């Protein structure tokens, strides 16, 4: 009997060790949106990934734009596409279900009413952030201070003022940079692509030129204790992003929508370039999940299947770097005590 008990105990140990080895680890998604079903305008599809950047023929008096938008967002011809949700409740509940199913902790950014509603449903999974694309619509500094004191402000994110033509160094953002430095919370700022053609159909002030990561330099000089993650990693300005990261070691690159919506032949070499250049401890995973909850799963699947990147590097990208950057270890992996 005792021999059988030993055998069973040994088997149990082996099985749990194997299960542990096989079980996918936890993930920190640095970038999901907590807002409403109409957060990205009318119902639309997202391609994961987008096969090509289609050409737009503006046509006479711009008559070609609707056909372009249908081909890109309304009914795109791509092998894998997902349709947007139809209600706020559906967006919140399905996104949270996806997070739980994949063992994801997510920095959820938006305005306070949405963020608080989402947080009420999943305080164990969501890391609350505040962000918007219009400086004037960000909550007043005092309100943010109160949220921080109440444990409801993990980051200022996403600051997507690029959609309104506002540069990082714009005076309207200065008090938020100063606040983030004072409260010691990181800031996620959108510096990269938006939906193709967005200047013509949704955000007339969006400027691609504001994707240049070096535009952050004056802010970092003025606020030396500020911690920043650059959303969409300044794509496609890889060299300028690396120049910024080399000069300012507190800056991290977050890959956002690139990991779900960009082609394998583009995103993995882009990510790998940062690893090869020595920045593997400062790359952050995010999905930019907006109104397509499936993207939570898609991003993780794509990263886990990505070529040329080792399992150890994927571990850093998917969890460890974010835990160190945010100074939290929600899955209790012990990574913080190992980090120097
Ligand atoms: Zn975003």
From TrEMBL:
Residues 1-19 form the signal peptide. One of its GO terms (molecular function) is carboxy-lyase activity. InterPro entries: ACMSD, Amidohydro-rel, Metal_Hydrolase. It comes from the Bacteria. Transmembrane segments: none annotated. Keywords: Lyase, Signal. Residues 28-328 form the Amidohydrolase-related domain. This is Amidohydrolase-related domain-containing protein. It comes from Sphingomonas guangdongensis.
């Amino acid at each position: 009997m005792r021999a059988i008990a030993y055998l069973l105990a040994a088997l149990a140990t082996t099985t749990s060790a194997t299960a542990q080895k096989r079980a996918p680890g936890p993930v920190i998604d640095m970038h999901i949106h907590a807002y409403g079903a109409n957060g990205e305008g009318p119902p639309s599809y997202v391609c994961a990934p987008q096969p090509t950047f289609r050409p737009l023929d503006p046509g006479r008096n711009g008559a070609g734009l609707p056909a372009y938008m249908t081909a890109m967002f309304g009914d795109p011809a791509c092998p894998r596409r997902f349709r947007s949700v139809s209600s706020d409740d559906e967006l919140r509940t399905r996104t949270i279900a996806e997070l739980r199913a994949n063992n994801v902790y997510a920095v959820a950014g938006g305005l306070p009413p949405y963020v608080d509603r989402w947080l009420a449903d999943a305080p164990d999974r969501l890391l609350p952030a505040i962000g918007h694309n219009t400086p004037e619509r960000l909550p007043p500094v005092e309100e943010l201070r109160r949220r921080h004191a109440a444990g409801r402000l993990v980051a200022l994110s996403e600051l997507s003022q690029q959609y309104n033509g506002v540069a990082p160094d714009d005076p309207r953002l200065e008090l938020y940079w100063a606040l983030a430095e004072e409260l010691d919370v990181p800031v996620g700022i959108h510096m990269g692509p938006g939906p193709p053609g967005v200047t013509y159909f949704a955000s007339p002030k969006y400027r691609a030129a504001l994707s240049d990561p070096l535009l952050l330099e004056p802010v970092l000089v003025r606020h030396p204790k500020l911690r920043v993650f650059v959303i969409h990693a300044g794509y496609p300005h890889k060299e300028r992003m690396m120049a910024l990261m080399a000069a300012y070691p507190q800056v991290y690159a977050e890959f956002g929508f690139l990991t779900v919506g960009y082609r394998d032949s583009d995103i993995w070499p882009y990510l790998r370039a940062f690893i090869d250049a020595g920045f593997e401890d400062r790359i952050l995973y995010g999905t930019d999940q907006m109104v397509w909850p499936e993207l939570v799963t898609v991003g993780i699947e794509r990263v886990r299947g990505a070529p040329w990147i080792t399992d150890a590097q994927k571990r850093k990208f998917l969890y460890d770097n974010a835990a160190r950057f945010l100074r939290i270890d929600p899955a209790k992996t012990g990574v913080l005590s190992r980090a120097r």
